[in-house]
Amino acid sequence: MKKLKRYQYEKYAVLCNLAYSRVLKHTRYGFAPKGQRIVYNRFGQPMMRVLWKNDHDEVIVVIKGSHNPQDWLLNLHLWQRKAHCLKLNYSVHSGYLQQITQPSIAKQDHSPHPLNVYQALYNILQPLLENGKRVTFTGHSSGGAIACILADALEKQRAKSVKRVVTFGQPAFGGFMMKKQYSLSHKTYRICCDLDIVTFLPPLPGVYLHVGKQLWLYNGKIYENTPTLIRLGRSVASWVIRPFSYHLMSKYIRNKDFFDER
């Protein structure tokens, strides 16, 4: 597995943050003037943004996490369903599958038979793939879980079309069969930050498992593939003792430059 470079991490993190904005002025970030397409959810709200540059082979699909009460309720659908509609031979989180298969309805679209989210996304990606581009999927929270599902579905339909998958604060989305058959583990980077409780969800050990390489941002360092129990234990312990940690001399030493400047 190749390393995720710092500039790549920062790029995807910024885009995931911007995905929650009502409008993303993509040209400010170097994308082509016509290098943005939006995939809408059933309410006509932006769910995904597809971004690209004309002179670069990478297309970036940015997926935001739950952003309405209905999606938050879908997160509670903890049972798993077969993802045959995506041509996957394993089961995934029912709520995430419902988000992927919901109708994609732009506000100006009055079609009586709208495409679902995956179909709308594939229609956008198909001509870009035919022009030699490859796709990076990135997302935050449930958007990260959906990114993994969509990436694997696309990769199984068009081999070598996915460049990488980078997620932030992602919950798990499938079980043992998913982990066994997921084809992009060597290209998937799952970034967790300190005690982000969502990264431990759903709270069903053994029923839900993670895939890819975990990068844990903790105490100013990056740890790779830290076991869940160790990560949870360290995080809870850190949270309990945090008020006392501010008494350490290291907290005072870090501020010495403040005095040196005066």
TrEMBL record:
Coiled-coil positions are none
Instruction: Quote the Pfam families the UniProt record gives.
Output: Lipase_3
InterPro entries named among the record's database cross-references: AB_hydrolase_fold, Fungal_lipase-type, Sec_MonoDiacylglyc_Lipase
Residue span(s) of domain Fungal lipase-type? 60-203
Q: What PANTHER family does the record point to?
A: ALPHA/BETA-HYDROLASES SUPERFAMILY PROTEIN (PTHR45856), FUNGAL LIPASE-LIKE DOMAIN-CONTAINING PROTEIN (PTHR45856:SF24)
| Protein name listed in UniProt | Lipase
Q: Which organism is it from?
A: Vibrio variabilis
